[in-house]
Design a protein that fits this description.
Shape: elongated
Helix content: over 70%
Mean pLDDT: 94
Low-confidence stretches: none
Number of strands: 3
Oligomer: single chain
């Protein structure tokens, strides 16, 4: 392995740690990113020194994060990992996934909850909680607008 590749892996491991990712997940990501096409999970297992089962589990996480995709090649039993080299395309996938899973349900359901909170609130503390939730909802709306503007520019 080239020294530059080792340094790249170290850099991304450090960044991954700041995002709560473990070293193996980050290492798998960067190895697959550097591959011109795709890489087999078997090869990833050999290069990382981890079992195929461990690599497979970490690959599932990368898939859930919309960072990588698994596939098979025709006539080949091996499973391959592909990481899109265009960060803008990956970012768009992540925005869509985050919006579907988190933002849209909040935008849909939180106003009803805020109204219920306001109606049920008797104490000053409960009224403050309703205000906090309402502000959170307004902030999410603003962030969603900014996110969609970014999405449309990518």
């Amino acid at each position: 392995m080239l020294q530059a590749e080792k340094e790249t892996i170290t850099l991304f491991k450090n960044i991954g740690h700041m995002h709560g990712l473990d070293s193996l997940t980050t290492e798998i990501f960067i190895i697959a990113l550097l591959e011109p096409d795709c890489i087999s999970l078997e090869e990833l297992s050999k290069r990382t020194g981890y079992s195929l089962a461990s690599v497979s589990n970490k690959v599932k996480l990368l898939e859930r994060m919309a960072i990588a995709t698994k596939h098979r090649k025709p006539g080949d039993k091996k499973v391959y990992l592909h990481v899109d080299k265009k960060i803008s395309k990956v970012t768009k996938k992540q925005i869509i996934k985050h919006r579907e899973i988190e933002t849209l349900p909040i935008l849909e359901k939180l106003p009803k909850i805020v109204n219920k909170f306001k109606k049920e609130a008797k104490t000053k503390k409960d009224k403050e909680k309703a205000k906090v939730l309402e502000q959170y909802y307004n902030d999410i709306k603003k962030m969603d607008k900014l996110t969609m503007e970014l999405f449309n520019r990518l």
